[in-house]
Amino acid sequence: MATIHDVAERAGVSVTTVSRVLNNRGYISESTRSKVYQCMEELGYQPNEIARSLLKKQSNIIGLIVPNVSHPFFGELASFVEYYAYEHGFKMLLCNSHLDPVKEKEYIEMMRRNRVDGIIMGSHTLEVEDYRNLHHPIVTFDRQIDSEIPYMSSDNYRGGELATELLVKKDCKKIAHICGNLELDLLANQRTQAFQDVVSRHEVEHLIVQTDMNVFDQQQYERIIAELFREHPDIDGVFATSDIIAAYVVQHCYKLGKRVPHDIRIVGYDDVSAASWVVPSITTIQQPIEEMSKQAIELIRGQLAEETIRMANILPVTLIERGTT
Questions:
Q1: Residue 170: pLDDT band with limits 50, 70, 90
Q2: pTM for the whole thing?
Q3: What Pfam families does the record point to (predicted)?
């Protein structure tokens, strides 16, 4: 197996020069850099990444833990996080927690052992103390778990306002809100608070339906929606806390022979790509997923550089009106 000494000898340079090329440090002429890389390829030399990370005290790896990457929101989030991580010289380690605290803790320990440079948490099943004890740069998504841990979020309250105000404006007389389980301490609960405030202000009949604790388990959506329409067939407006739930509502209305948007109007949340694919396309509250991902990477980089960073990072949302309203 070729060593760094073999590369240096073949390229006719010092081991120090090869090391500088590998670590992109100091001035190296382009011709020398090209020659070193050519010799590495000819010899099949692979740098020891573990040794390099120990030397630099930096692995150039960022961990991302999400509940389930198959969920469209987290799939798009992971894609953008990886893109911006790579833009800044980082690789991404992706883990699915499936909202299992044991699994989440094991992944965090794995990341600690592998000396990741930072962790972006899109899953939050552990106690706050577990996050405080990480001693790694960390950013949380949609949950404020500590005054000294930065978090990334969209303006959930404004999103809930925009969605509910649209349904009221469309003259909906009985509006259902389908949301995640409110026992979970998530910033997304502000969408529900906004819903309650708007319907109360306009004195509109309403009801709230929660999922179980596994808010991303899509198998429960059909059951919840079927029960909702069986008990309240006169519903003429639905604000769903995700586009996926909204799509299930559209599907169930089709089974019942309800016309969307003539008989019932539906608003989702997130604006994942699939929201514009279904028929009718889903009116939704657009979260700036790309910008949130980009800023999450910047927050990790800021912590690595020991810069002063903002703890609360809340981005604006946008109402995207489509076929369901």
A1: very high
A2: 0.80
A3: LacI, Peripla_BP_3
